[in-house]
Amino acid sequence: MVAKKLRIYGFLGSPRRKGNTATLLEAVLREARKRGHETELIHLMGRKISGCVECFACQKVMDEPGCAIKDDMQEMFPKMLSADCILLATPVFDWSFSWLMKAFLDRTYCLAKYAEDGTYTSLLEGKKCGLLVTAAGDEFDGADLVVEAYRRIVEYHRMEYIGHIVVGNVNTGEDVLRPGIKRKIKEFVKNML
Fold it and tell me: Which of 60, 68, 100, 192 is most exposed, with minimal Cβ within 10 Å?
């Protein structure tokens, strides 16, 4: 029995819809569903998501995103705002997030609202956020930089950090779900509660 059913959105930032990162995200969402939570996997690949252009139109509206760019992020903002928990899933690309995840995250600027005195609020404040990373190298070969950037994004948006899973030295889907990782997935999902 689940005390509170969580709405969990998993944003997949891999260009491969059935790749290693998708395998990891699907396993986490499956474990969350087993515990009674509502989940949805959202593929960023194939969607039109432009980077932020710093037009600041979003700062004229304080209680909603207000982003002036009319692309597929307009579908993502309501999902993020209605979520109890947001999962970001990305492979390591050149010591960073994938280009898909980077554009997606850049656009979350419109969810931070600045007052004239420089203080700000975030429309994501209090929401849980977790990170899933896959990498061909080990955890300290670029994935560590992704984790640090994620921590700062969570802090900036005043979200609740629920942790991260990094699966390094991955070549195939079977590598992703090796026994030690399955245990980490169960612990990670428990932290969402």
Answer: 60
